[in-house]
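Q: Hi! First time asking for a complex rather than a single chain. Here are the components, and I think there are two in total. Is that enough to go on?
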Amino acid sequence: MDGLTEVFNIGTCRAASSLSEIVGDEVKLTVPRLQLVNSADLTLDTLSLGSARLGSVKQQFSGPFDAQAMLLFTEERALEIVHDMMGSQVSIEDIAEFEQEAMCELGNIVLNACLSAMADIFGVELDSTLPQYTVDTSEAILQQILSDTDQPVLMVLHMNLSIEKRHTQGYLAFLLSTSSLQKLLAHIDRFISGI
Amino acid sequence: MGLILIDADGRVALWNQWIAKRSGISTETALNQSLDALFSSGLSASFKTALGNSLSYKLPIVLSNALHHAPLPLYPLPLTPEPRTRLHQSITLTPLMGHNEAHFCLIQVTDTSMFIKREKVLKLQSDQFSLDATTDSLTGAYNRRSFDERLQAEFRHAQRVKSPLSLLMLDIDYFKNYNDTYGHPAGDQVLISVVNTIKSQLHRPSDIVTRYGGEEFAVILPDCGIEGSLSVAKTLLQAINTLNIPHSQSEIADHVTISIGASTLDAAAKTNTDQLLKSADAALYQAKNAGRNRAQHLLIQTCVI
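A: Yes, that's all I need. Here is the structure of the assembled complex.
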């Protein structure tokens, strides 16, 4: 588990530097907690997302191990973050039209950074589908996660995102479900023993 | 849609007509060149990072219009001489595998100008709708509906921070006589003048002027006690007198005057907005009975709720 946290720390560092470049302001992204959850036990509480509406960005990765990665955030928070990233004077309501695309990009950056960090460290190559963005009620999103995954165990990463100067704080839940958890763990073992 | 294909060495392998037209760079010129060399006028740093990542990690990347606006120097058609404004773009970078495992990155560019234009039109309309829904179209003061909302909001705020809250109810004296004598269009002008005068005398942005009924207006004065509300009332009386709008059928003056009822919510008092409103109304009634063109203040009877 520590090995994985390390991998994701590297990933989030990269994501943060990409985001900082776009925002022109320091963006910090940290992984305070990594958790393995039985999909049967997955609730909004385990995800620490207590909101009526959630946004999600999903990408399907394939390679030596297959993985479905998904980033979840509360809609309001997401809008605030995007708003700050855009750095303009537009109010939150003004950007509804752009929100979808911008959130999709934000999710894409975080997902790619984490998965490419994995690929680098494990010395493998991964392919991915284009990111898919959805906003829906939290029940519908949760239902979708459960029906999408036929895996008994999910990996949940709790992430905190903050934009230094603007005092914006956001929380993101990163979900990884993989049919090849054993293969992934084998890669981690190899990585750790290789250090 | 614009399509550019970049090979693993960062050179252009495909440059479609859409891109050629909007960049002013022909396909012949572009092929086998790097984007940096072609777009000397500048690729954004975040675009370069994204392209680099896409080529090295072979992962798809989206660049949204909201966060990047216009990463590539592409311009609306027909191309005009410099200086010109870049086209709004949404970009997708997709890694592709060619023959012999050669890697490519496909850059797809969509023109989002139309979306942005549509968004602006919708925004303007929604602004107009919300203005219509909250203001009185004749005087531009807030309407009765927003009065109810604002009073509730200010009331809750006053209770939370334990600050006083005052309410003024204003009525134009003998307004019916004015309308009967001078006609409704002239009456409308008086309503507009009164609102503008009230607004011009209130200097705090938090003070709220609303048209409560026909010729009745309400002014919400947050963080303002008895003394303050009376002083504002006197200023308003004076200002309306100074307007000196002739009113031959007024029984108390030769010009348009107003009467004001004021009430104040004491920070410590347990009360509600209804009480505040009733007291201000009763005070207005007293001001009318006492001869009009004057202000009267009533303290709210403290009641237990």
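A: Chain B touches chain A at residues 45-46, 49-50, 53, 57-68, 90, 92, 94-95, 115, 119, 122-123 (CB under 8 Å). Let me know if you'd like any chain examined more closely.
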